[in-house]
Amino acid sequence: MSSSKKSSDGKSSEIEEAVASLTMPFNKILLTSSDGESFEIDEAVARKFQIIAHMIEDDCAGKAIPIDNVTGDILSKIIEYAKKHVVEPDEDEDEEAKKKLDSWDAKFVEKLDLETIFKIILAANYLNFEGLLGFASQTVADYIKDKTPEEVREIFNIENDFTPEEEEAIRKENAWTFNG
Amino acid sequence: MKTRRQDVSEDALTISRQSSTSIDRRENSEAIPTDLIFEILLKLPAKSIARCRCVSKLWSSILLRPDFTELFLTRSSTLPQLLFSFEKTGELFFFTAPQIQNPDENSSLVSPSYHMKVPFDRTSQICGHIRGLLCLTHLRVLKGRKETVPMICNPSTGQALPLPKVKTRRVKVRSFLVYDPIEKQFKVLSMTWPCYGNGEKNCEEYQILTLGTQTLSWRMIDCCLPHHPAHDGICIDGCLYYQAMVGPLSGISTIVCFDVRSEKFSFVKKARGMVLYGQSALVNYEGRLGAIQSDELHGIITGQTRSLELWVLVDAEKHEWSRHVYALPPMWKNVVAEAELNIVGRTSTNEIVLSRHYSSVLSMFSTTIPRGTQS
Q1: Which of B20, B40, B53 is the closest to A69 by Cβ?
Q2: What is the value of ipTM here, to two decimals?
Q3: pTM greater than 0.80
């Protein structure tokens, strides 16, 4: 942790950084999105993203970490969620806090369109942010659960590759579910 | 803005967290890789899963994967539900209701959700239920001949699958739905007996049908220990147990153990003092066979019953059982009064569910057995 190398001027900024990190109570990590937007966040928040947590453990997290696969607008949403969820309240111990957080989560996704949620899923998967990935997946699942197959195809941009006969055969097998 | 499914098919069927490469391959950054679709589908309710099979061939193949089914079952068993069935005017209705976690705190009424119904008449029988599937048999008349036709139902998806008729000329058939956890196979075991004469004769024509194979057909199997099943069975960890009588008038009552994988029968002797009456006195007690009886004379459970006895099978080969007695709470006699109850099952939280005999009103009583009472 302490680098006591005293060498030429070029290295003095490293020493400054090392000293700064010793005196600062919490490290700040800088994330840069693919389109150049920067976000400075606490280490505790950054650790929610497993790939960054691993980098911190392996000591290769510099001050600025580029996040190549995620644009600024999505990254800002993810950071917003991560900040709220730094400490997850225990359902049994603090029911009130859990309810408040659930209600915040619900409002958080309400404002987002489906395309953004998909982008969040992809980004949360890349960053390895389990909590948000699970939450966003559940949101999509809840959205599609009562939709017809045609509507689901439209949402996911999927082509129907069944022949009419194949599709009919599956529908017959599932006849009960279509009747509700 | 189309998804190119062909690119996804081959290597995307393996689950990997680092699937970001699939984003680079497609111009469209919206496309969701297969493993994330897998995660989304896991969170759907069972009815929606069936519907999503029609979306595309890729989705259908994901949903039919055995690891998907296993994960789905694991997740949904964290929120256990009770499955009820009741019979009315020629039909059998299935409902589920969430299991009440703390009945003392939650005294509100539970409203069950309706799932499906199947035709059910006097000749129909429920033959067992395991891992969310149920088996029923119906007697149908075809060209003047009576045939027993089993059917598998899945109440959570509402699907019903009729099976080929049991291979017999006889009318009296008993069937059991069983599951082998090692080969992960469901099978139906059937046996028949002649209906003439007094007393139930030993069964013959033991046969098995394995589900999930291309062509469903009955295979005859040997049973070197002929017997007659007395009541419903219970399948625990790949073994089917049911009470049976051996020999027509001898009255030797025993418990049959049928190993689903090897398809072999064996007998388990009852312990002394173990006299089981009533329909489903056999339960799954923490992975072992349990048998419950009341302390009353004829094993009937009423408001006067003061305690229940639980016998747990410790060693099947050595016919060893352990016995535990549970006193019923004092308010039992007020709650139950004059009703006569049968044990209808056991929930995953160690509650015994009892129901009135022949009642038009579905009423349930449950009492909890403490865990880990056996050494």
Answers
A1: B20
A2: 0.78
A3: no
